[in-house]
Amino acid sequence: MFPPRLARYKPTQLRAVSRPAPATAAEQQKRLVGLLPIMASPTTCLKDHASRCGFVRPLLQLLVAAAAAAVLLPSVHGVASAGEQKISSIFLFGDSIVDPGNNNNRFTEAKANFPPYGRDFPGGVATGRFSNGLVPGDLLASKLGIKELLPPFLSDDLELKDLLSGVAFACGGSGYDPLTSKLATTLSSTDQLELFNDYKKKLTALVGEEEMTRVISEGVFLTVMGANDIVNNYFTLPLRRHEYDLPSYVDFLVSSAINFTKSLNDMGAKRIGFVGVPPLGCCPSQITLAGSPSRQCEPLRNEASELFNSRISTEIERLNAERSAFGSTIVYFDIYYNLLDLIQNPALYGFKEVSEGCCGSTVLNAAIFIAYHSACPNAIDYIFWDGFHPTQKAYNIVVDKLIQQNMKYLM
Ligand SMILES: *[C@@H]1O[C@H](CO)[C@@H](O)[C@H](O)[C@H]1NC(C)=O
């Protein structure tokens, strides 16, 4: 999710773990972007995801499955309306925190579909999830009784029942600032809304517009972005820092995030949870880059995270007040203090290591660090799996807290 602070990295250091030095400035920029850990993912998916990302075959499968829909739908509908408190589908937008593998079929260094990722996933397979096991979408879906795993929308083998119960549109490296994804050649938040539009069209073709509208309006939507904007784009790359000081960049991000949330609502999502950013200065990679020798959390990145969260939560409240009259609920979810609690009270939760990742604490992207580091044997002791992403155990605790604190507002 978050990349190196280039100001502290000499080009030669980058080169040592990368490829031969490029000749042109354009190549250089490309290469630097390639080094951004969880960010990169190419434009191929954006430009022609229909063919690239395997939607031709799946669509045929879906059409075949459509016949089954007539049989399936009444029962699905029955379950959904039987208990009013039941959430029947979940949809995620965001970055690598909630990307279950949308980057897999793309040319990018920001993948996690190889070991040791997935070491503790069912079957021990690396699916593209950026952790040792399940990621927040899976945990939410299973804890809410929807399904065991939340698949990536760009998966090869989605069936109708997957579409009906929810998917993730999140892509590693994404952010609310369009420049964040451009620099990382990944899908922007707006591109993810395009995918959502594709989803709506596909579901409409299979079950009709009325049923599609029902699924969307009853679904729970979460958006989890902003970390790449702050850590990669603002702190690492100089472009935004030349344009904005931190408070005005945060204002810009908040405006962009609110516009995203409004668009999502305008597209039919009525129950939206807006998840803030984690304490970014506590990520092992950021401590390595900019923190103290004692490996305390880096304060500036944490201040930036708090500033974003404080402003966006106010704006989300305002937006909710505006839109609740039209039957929408838009709620802010805190992840900052929920994760910080684990970091500050590790023993309480059975953790022994808070500032190092089980796979190391570098900012190097997954493919490179895998070549140079191996995972620790005792991930259970760690809050972080790599330099950026929590372990399944940490996610599990945080997701429990989120459900406990916030989910009632979206039911
Ligand atoms: C958000 O939308 C408003 C209204 O369309 C626009 O004026 C503003 O520039 C947008 N903000 C960003 C950051 O794009």
Automatic annotation (TrEMBL):
Record Pfam families: Lipase_GDSL (PF00657)
Gene3D superfamilies: SGNH hydrolase
InterPro entries: GDSL, GDSL_lipolytic_enzyme, SGNH_hydro_sf, SGNH_plant_lipase-like
Domain of life: Eukaryota
Stored CDD domains: SGNH_plant_lipase_like
GO molecular function terms attached to this record: hydrolase activity, acting on ester bonds
Family in the record: Belongs to the 'GDSL' lipolytic enzyme family.
Entry protein name: GDSL esterase/lipase EXL3
Organism: Paspalum notatum var. saurae
Upper classification of the organism: Eukaryota, Viridiplantae, Streptophyta, Embryophyta, Tracheophyta
